[in-house]
Amino acid sequence: MATLLPAVVLCCALLAGADGHLRLSEEFGHSASSRPAGDHFRAPEDVVGSSLLTLLADALPASPVCDDKLEGAPASDAARDVRPFLQHVCHRQRQLEALLQATKPQPPPSLPPAPRAAALPRTFALEQEEAEEEALEELPEWAYELGGWLAPMQRDVPSKLCRQHSRVYLEQLNKAQPWAFSMFDSSGKFPDGIFYGNLNMLGSWDECLQVEAMLNQTEYPNITQAAFKGQYCMANIIPSSALPTDDTGLGLVPVLPLPAFASIAGGPSAFGVVTGLRYGYCIPSSCSAQDVMISLNTWLYSRNSTGLLAYVGEGNCHTKDEGQNFETNDIVVIVIMSLFGVIIALCTALDVIGIYVKRMSSSADGTIIGSSTAFPPADWRIVNAFSLRYNTKKLLGTKTGSDNLGCIHGMRFLSMTWVVLGHNYLFAFMNGAWTNPTYLPEILKAPALEVVANGLLSVDTFFCLGGIMVAYAFMKMVTSNRGKVRWHDIPMMYLHRYLRLTPVYAITVALTATLARRIGTGPGLASALNTQAKVCQDSWWKNLLYINNFTDIFSLCIGQSWYLPVDFQLFLAAPFMMLPYVYNKKIGVAWLALLAAGSVAVPAVITYQEDLPPTDLFFNINSIPKAQQFFEDFYIKPWCRASPYIVGIGMGLLLHHIKANKITIRIPAAVNVAMWALMSATGLVIVYGTHQWNKDPTATWTTAEAVSYGSLHRLAWGIALSWVVFACVNGYGGFANMLLSFKGFIPLGRLTYTTYLVAVQVQTWYFSSFKGTARYGNTIMVFTFLSNLIVSTAIAAVLSLCFESPMMSIEKIIFPQRRTKTGPSETTPKDLASAGPAPGETPHESRTRL
């Protein structure tokens, strides 16, 4: 607090002014130098300014701000100029402090009169652009720096018009002009709770954009543009090194003490994240983002050497009437979306008309006797493929085949909600403007929140389910081929998989790279969405080839897209995991056991050699030094995520063996209860095994703990999930099977793939669009989780109906299923492409996806 007083003093000194106001007389063609000095303080605004100085001293809290260090500082020009006023404030503070300590209230002694504003130095007296640099050299340090913090007015700012408008703004602010006060009022101020992590000085977005300034050309004849509007700019100010000590006590951001900021944001926080100060302020619309960044960095460098740096991106400054400058890629995506829209509208109309014609021609008396299409499906398959009516009917259908694994529907949907829940807490913390970030450790101490902190297991759930469905469908294909795998089956399986995964993924990448950043407004929205768009524009081809997990983390166009290449690569390896089983079951089982052992050994070795944490501990500071290495070398590599997939393949082979041989499984009740208890306990141990490291941000772990948990917990999780599927399919699931097999989960399960693709973008968009601060806590997280889940599911439904489902239907037209003598069709590699967490239909209708 000792450094806070001069900052507030300087802010009010700006309002009080020098010589009655901040004078730009010669610069803008007018002069007040001929007036007597005393006349400067008879104007109403001067009286108000002097009153503000007095009220400031009265309002200051009793605190040790007037120490020997402040009063005994070297008498620099800047300090000497403001010393009379500082002494007055210190005198008032000492008396208020004594008053608070007195046993009985008593009026404070009489005070010396506050110094007149004339005691403060003049700030600007500029005539021409040539005189500007010389005049700026003569500016008192505190005035020069204060102006630079409020608006880009320094000589280093490239735009002359920006400098002129900024100085007019400061002058009119000193004259109490309403529009200037609105600009100042809408700029960020000293926030409450900075030691609680509140580094958000957002100001008022809407108030700033409503500002319109019209200058008097007679008063300012040298300014070429007489009107400007308020422009809201968001600057991210981050520490670059330790801040030097300021012996004068004047080296402060006018609305935030730099040493306090450095202590919070300069080192590892409670979560290991170095967060920057978000400073939103209102400036003239004639200034560019470059002008703002140069101005702030000039200001920061002059006071702190290399202590702080400001970054202002081109998308961080906004005006009320700014338009959308569509680029070529934006237009291309708009054209593609428009073509799809026209085709869908036309095909839907034809489909509906066809139904109407069929109904009217089905009976001579005009009675409606059916609702099937008017034309044979073979003739209208493409129409049906793009018909919203037809695709909606498929999406909402709940009929499944006799050998459908019903519990898969509920497992994939509930796991998808787990993914969205975990991401909601994480991306809210990363993108939202919160007043209490350091409260997060208190939230994580609650045992119930460990489900969120260790929500990464939801991904392993889908790896396990994927292995089950791939193996189940693969063995169905082998059985239909009389126990053989034909030479073209595996290549065609890969092709079908790619065709089903990629179209809707490509549309999502295209939208993220282009149009998504054009939607909505907010201080941090453009920065967040432009970053995503830039990555997508640079690395879209890596994502569509499913190799982005082998390049670098900056190739992940969509943050959650790391899962897609890992899943695809495991799918590529899946046939070779199962081929030995096709020809010799004993050898096949031994081969899977060896693969499972390898899936444990490889992560163990990597964790040990690279000294990695047990898992991705987002909120533990001891995991931060290895966080990026853990993500790149472990988390997104298929050989480190294969354990649940291999276990799932083993369970899929077992389920098909039981089904194909019509084996009846009989489990004694006691054994069934014991197995459920054992697997439930295993799951709880895995989920809560990380609680000791998440509830205490400074907790450490031994190498043995890291190696054992990091290598074994995914295998054990896969085994526990496989038991759930096995028990439910064979009639030993009880209430769990009743819940997971609920038919309402079938349509929702079909949307899990597209929901996964869009949920993170929805959450990033929502939290980045905050125009004010909010309190981080469980209540707001629950409500935003539910709303984001609903919105993500709705967007997923649109993408599924317009892109995913049509492309799947087109694929069926191109690669029709072959009819057999024993049934309607054989199981083909196309069914394998639908199995697992990929989009499409699991055996006989259902689909699954993370």
What would your notes on this structure say?
Mean pLDDT is 77; it is low at 1-82, 99-143, 241-274, 367-374, 820-827 and 835-850. This protein is 57% helix and 4% strand. Helix 16 (407-431) packs across helix 32 (778-814), helix 19 (457-480) runs parallel beside helix 25 (642-660) and helix 20 (489-513) runs antiparallel to helix 21 (525-544). Strands 1, 2, 3, 4, 5 and 6 form a six-stranded mixed beta sheet that branches. With 850 residues, the chain is mostly helical.
What order do the helices and strands come in, and which of them pair?
Blueprint: H1 4-16, H2 25-28, H3 44-59, H4 68-71, H5 77-101, H6 129-137, H7 141-150, H8 160-174, H9 178-185, E1 200-201, H10 205-209, E2 212-214, E3 227-239, H11 258-265, E4 277-284, H12 289-304, E5 308-311, E6 317-318, H13 328-361, H14 381-386, H15 388-396, H16 407-431, H17 440-444, H18 450-453, H19 457-480, H20 489-513, H21 525-544, H22 563-583, H23 585-610, H24 627-635, H25 642-660, H26 669-688, H27 691-694, H28 703-729, H29 735-740, H30 745-750, H31 752-768, H32 778-814, H33 829-834
Parallel strand pairs: 1-4
Antiparallel strand pairs: 2-3, 3-4, 3-5, 3-6
